[in-house]
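Subject: complex prediction, re-run

Hi both,

The earlier run crashed halfway through, so I resubmitted it with identical inputs.
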Amino acid sequence: MFTDKETFKQAFLIRLETLCGKQFEESTTRDHYYVLGHMVREHISRHWIATNERNRAQKRKQVYYLSIEFLLGRLLGSNLLNLGVRQVVEEGLRDLGIRLEDVEESEADAGLGNGGLGRLAACFLDSLATLNLPGHGHGIRYKHGLFDQKIVDGYQVELPQQWLRHGNVWEIRKEELAVEVNFWGKVEVYEQNGCLVFRHIDSKKVMAVPYDMPVIGYGTNTVNTLRLWNAEPAKTFPLHKDVMQYKRETEAISEFLYPDDAHDEGKILRLKQQYFLVAASLGSIVRAHRLQHGNLHQLHEYVAIHVNDTHPVLAIPELMRILLDEEGMSWEEAWHITTHTIAYTNHTTLSERLRMAIHLFQPLLPRIYMIVEEINERFCRELWERYPGDWGRIEQMAIIAHGVVKMAHLAIAGSHSVNGVAKLHTEILKQREMRLFYEWAPHKFNNKTNGVTHRRWLLKANPELSALITDTTGSRWIHEPETLIELKPHASDPAFQQALSAVKQQRKGKLAARIYEKTGIRVDESSIFDVQVKRLHAYKRQLLNVLHIMYLYNRLKEDPHFSIYPRTFIFGAKASPGYYYAKRIIKLIHSVADKVNNDKQTNEQLKVIFLENYRVSLAEEIFPAADVSEQISTASIEASGTGNMKFMMNGALTLGTLDGANVEIAEAVGKENMFLFGLTAEEVLNYYEHGGYRAHEYYHHDKRIKQVVDQLVNGFFPDVADYFEPIYDSLLTQNDEYFVLRDFAAYTEAHERVEAAYRDPARWWYMSAVNIAHSGYFASDRTIAEYAVDIWGISPSM
Ligand SMILES: *Cc1c(COP(=O)(O)O)cnc(C)c1O
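This time it finished cleanly. Structure:
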């Protein structure tokens, strides 16, 4: 139905009638979206079935990627692109007077994630399918994804996201594959044929109903599956007076995505979500394996289960439960299979935070808790034999200690692979955060530097740049992103530079139009577009960026000889609803924007824009238009970052610290092709360990700093009273935990280097081209190929 324009049009119009019951004339954009989505599903259904069939028939090892978040964004455009039918559809619709772009924009973002971690999972799915790898996602079908952000008077307001309001064309409900999940109740122990048998009784049952979504690879017939679980009342609905409460409690499990776990610790609902995901996923994985193999003795040879961060770590005791209680295996065999099946990715160096209080855990999951206790006992015994008498070490490594379960310790003990997400991050895990575990089992530790799918973030988001690349070096880069390096010889070619800058100009114009539409502010399209888009977090240091803008403003006001190359500073960031400090920073950005944008003396040179509701679809408009990529986290804290990679691919230059994957970007492009500044990870970690930093010294000795910090509280922003006082206090009273003031001077100086480079177009566009040329390494195809070989032991199947 997509073979040519005419066939497509015919098929489209017929389905418009059958699916929507409408003549073309009365149809709406949403109808067009719905019909197109259906046509794609119809088109791929044979391949979807064939992929599943092949997986069954070939008995190949499968990988299941368990993640509490999948930040997919919109799917229509990328599905059409991956199927290679986007152009036919675009032209066919144009004949009918429909703009494909409008249809695509009518799709709600599937925002089932907070940020980097969830987006990584989505990029991985794309690469798995494209590389014909048998890899599938398991997640939760949240009714409401990450909240929609509205800005009212400069303050963030959260609205529930309603992505399912008009249904979801991509999903298929598979009620017959539902899995029962048990909470609460108690464990009965009795003896049978000389063995202890455990039975979980009086539990509250929840049905996990899978909704399957196709994951379509680029230019391949492989269609993998993302299975999202929905929580529903069990079939044997308990008919008592609490029936309404039971229904509400059950449905609450898949109702909301938690907006950032760092600020919602110890919540019972969160633990419920985690076990719900794990029990449903393992239930369905094990059922499929049993059907094929009859038993689970070889599970680890045919199944790899990946635990994305600690949220799904209960996969370890849950698999043990299945093998022990349902299969009757010995502990030793069950442990062998479990640890050889499960692999774990660590996403944060603050692993010590990932704890769950026993008093919450034990009553909710009594049998699982018993198993975790046994795992802990055996683990500590093993440590005791290895390190006799070293109580301190064992206490620090224990899985259960001082009333909490340490989820990261359970993940390391119960898996065969522990990976960090960038070289620096993995080194910090090995040398500091998890040093004792690394000493205990060095073979488990490995690095897998993150990547992003260049098909969404370059090919789809930036067709203009993609066309230039293909015109210059051919289209091999789409399948083999590392061949982008072939651009490098063109980096100093004036004609190529000209074309590159024209593409950037075009996309800046497009973003400027969007900015005007959304904010009513006109920005100078020839100014430097300097962008910081990411979640709002103190460690990501949006504050450093803002304070620097305040300094530029002050200087422009006070120093008649001072001028700058015009800048447009663009922000996008959601703050977790309970993270009050972050919300104050959002307000600060708006207060500064108000001042700067409305001051005739400065607003030709300086503009500050906050784009509300930062999400995948908005990100796709921003990256192609960026000149400067702000990656300014306090060194050592950002595990990897992936925004940095998306910017790089789109030819933006990084202004950043040597943190996360910035380090590897610098290794790839050379330090001279980015703008590095500030403390190194080593220096930061030394400060944290030994002290010695005194923020007030920087405040007193640098007039620029004193001025901007004072302005937070001295009435400079008259409308906010003392709203910014906690920010002021964080810097001075609390000694500036993230070294904002320490790095201020270096950051200012780095901005001066940015400006000097931008004033020299030959240099700037050379640097930009070099960044694009080296971005292939940061494609998730490379990352996934490494996971496939080093961790999962899977190979392409087609
Ligand atoms: C890539 C991405 C992120 C992660 O950005 P970082 O700069 O790595 O923190 C967060 N949100 C969205 C919508 C993204 O696309």
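The first helix runs from residue 5 to 20.

- K.
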